[in-house]
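Key idea: predict the complex, not the pieces.
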Amino acid sequence: MNSAQFSSIMVSAILVQNLVIIYMLCDKNLFKALAAPSTAAVFGCCVTFWTTFASMLAWLADSFILKPYSIEWLSPVVFIIIIAALEIAAEAVISRIFPQKEKLAHRFLTGSAFGSAVFGLVLLNVEVNMRGFFGAAFYGLCAGIGYLAALFIIYSALGRLKFSSPPTVFKGIPIALVTTGIISLAFMGFSNISISYW
Amino acid sequence: MKKNKQKTSPSKKHCAVKNAYVKSAVKSAKNAAKHLSAPKIKNKPADSSSIKKHAKPACEPEVPNKITKIPAAGVKEKDREKENALLDFFKPVKSFLRKTCVIPHLIRLWAIKRTSAAKAEKKIDAHLEIKQRVLSLNPVFVKFIAFVPLLGGATSFKNGILLSCAMIINVVLLNLLLIPVYKFIPAKYRAAVLFALSGIVITPVYAAAKYLVPSVAAGCGIYLPLIAVFAPVLTERKYFGKPRGIMKTAFCAFFNGIGFAAATLLFSFAREIITNGSVYDRPLPYLASIKFKFAAYPAGAFILLAAFAALFRKISGYKGDERDGEK
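Result:
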């Protein structure tokens, strides 16, 4: 893979196929993490970590186990087991290194790993399996960076809403959804961007 | 006045009341035992001179303490004597029971237990109400738990039906699978195991959907297997290990799935009408010419979901949350 292909993957993962804004893989944990910039940053970094390593392991499982033996129908459970095993391993490592922060780490790691973004990305990555191992890993990394960027944009937009007074029934998550919808309108302008490589 | 009282659970209150009554019963029993053993001395005279003043003359006959009953006409003397003997036999027992007050305490404790158990059962039955789970506790529009499959997958009514069926099957089977296993899972690994079990359940459902309705499953895309992410959140673990737990768990899970299904069907119905002017791929009269493709895009999906959430909040009488900065 050359640099043009990597740039194409980066642009598509961050802008054209953003996990939050275009694929709508944003669950309640994302809006909870937007309570403070520190929690949003930590949550985004956790998601980036999972998307990178889960993409790598899922590509390996798909290429060497599922496709050769024609058992692609088992892909959901295999990918879920990969994500769960990664989470348990990461939690064990963190509890050894930072034992006093075990509970906090457990909350962040479970909330980010077992969300829709990681599993959704793994399924997307496998659907378009023309990138190879490094391509899949880089796509996972860039998708995580795109997730962080989307968190930052939505946080900035919601910060302006603190000084406004929407109707009571729209306060909280509904107004955040409307804001995200308006941001996605802007991101639709990136839909036909691509970097050609040959 | 104390406004913010910490609410104790009914079982703790009941235990506190029971303990208080038992302690008081034991105390009064001990006091009664002391009184029964010691001789009664009323109006102790202070000086020996006062004893002489209050001393009864020897010639006067002793007046008996008990009041004798006037014999009723026709009652034989033997029966009367028997009655008196029985009364005399039970008199100390009666006085002991009156002093210790055990029986009223026991009756009171039994009544408290019965009412609190009845209240607890009523609470349990109330949670199975379908109306609550569809309207005021809707998992999508009120709790915002499982809205991702709606946003991405529910682009038409057919997709909505498939997503609803998949979610109901997944939630019910996951709950039933969890009942024998839940106790043995350490708390640290519960989330991971729940996720894995949900994956085990969704895999055959996804495969069956791809086989039976391939076009609709392809239309749902990655959002059909994504149901595995949200099914663990819709599980109900309240009735694990309780009597009739399996039936109550299954019904609870089914009604949670019904809440999701109602939201999905409503959302997909509205979205298809706005986007294509049709329902179930059949064009509607007058509406088929009015198409607003915006609803098919992510922006339209977000805004439509927010609108439905606001509508459900209005119906359920939402008055704000502390986290939103309002009470």
